[in-house]
Design goal:
Length: 311
């Protein structure tokens, strides 16, 4: 019972992050399932089955808050579903010994990308309002869907930064559209895993626990997306994913590192993580200060114009 409660809390926390940032539900949940000994294919299958419910509720909540661009959902969601099904059947064919370090490497790469992307660049806003082409969204969805299934997460880490980097869709609609289209990816991936694995290794009580936590968090996250600083959250989540998957790799048969190697690596990760968080917080505060100064300057100019007109 205690384990189910913890899984529900994991689902709640992961969905809060995912719904606010447009990524990391699958990566965070799968990372933690792997850490407690679940096989890679079963972990990814468990998370994707839970995501069918969480993405449905999250998509509805984002739609209600006006965070969804349905053209983007259609253009990226369908190829994403194709890639997710292919990735699920591929992962199901691998042995646990092979798949565990492979998945950890994928998750580690995604964690590094999240940390660097959000710490260094924040959220770009150039080209806002220009249309997103199908020739861009189609291949992006295919790759993101495949990575999502094989890595237990990746739809958001691949899709969200790519669309944000284009600067053509405002952040809240990018996050809402990615979260909504993930429903198609979750359904396709789940079908792929059920086709490849059956129900082998999938604990449906765990699925339900993750689902309950995610469903509770989904509407809260859709509201928070307008208020929470994504830059800081991205740095925090990226560091957690890097630390957890580095730990898995160092303990795997591929590396089997000694304690004299493990602990210096852990300390280095903690230091980089702390520095990244501090930088993100400082950069966020500086951006907010500049915005306030710009607003104050515009109001002062307006007041001067009013006085000049009156005189």
């Amino acid at each position: 019972m205690r384990q189910l409660v913890l899984l529900a809390l994991v689902g709640l926390g992961a969905q809060l992050v995912d719904g606010s940032l447009g990524m990391a539900y699958g990566v965070t949940s799968t990372t933690l399932l792997l850490a407690i000994g679940t096989s890679p294919a079963a972990a990814s299958a468990t998370v994707h089955l839970a995501e069918i419910g969480t993405t449905l509720v999250s998509g509805f909540a984002h739609w209600r808050f006006g965070n969804v661009d349905w053209k983007v959902v259609a253009k990226i969601g369908v190829p994403g579903a194709v890639g997710a099904f292919a990735g699920a059947t591929f992962l199901s064919s691998l042995s646990t010994e092979t798949a565990a370090p492979v998945m950890s490497l994928i998750l580690l790469a995604l964690g590094i990308y999240i940390l660097v992307r959000f710490t260094t660049f924040g959220l770009p806003k150039h080209n806002l309002g220009k249309p997103l082409r199908k020739r861009f969204l189609g291949p992006l969805g295919l790759v993101a869907g495949f990575v999502d299934s094989t890595g237990g997460g990746g739809w958001g880490p691949v899709g969200t930064p790519a669309i944000l980097a284009s600067g053509r869709l405002e952040p809240r609609k990018t996050i809402g559209s990615i979260d909504t289209s993930e429903f198609l990816v979750a359904v396709a991936a789940s079908l792929g895993f059920l086709f490849g694995l059956g129900s082998q290794g999938v604990d449906f009580a765990w699925v339900l626990a993750l689902l309950i936590g995610g469903v509770i968090a989904a509407p809260i996250a859709a509201w928070l997306v307008r208020h929470i600083p994504p830059r800081v959250l991205g740095s925090a989540v990226g560091g957690l994913i890097i630390l957890t998957n580095t730990r898995t790799l160092l303990r795997s048969d591929w590396v089997d590192a000694s304690d004299s190697v493990k602990w210096p690596v852990y300390v280095a990760i903690y230091l980089v993580w702390a520095a990244s968080l501090a930088y993100s917080i400082r950069a966020y505060r500086a951006d907010r200060r500049e915005e306030r100064e710009a607003v104050a300057g515009a109001e002062a100019d307006k007041a001067d114009e009013s006085r000049s007109a009156a005189s």
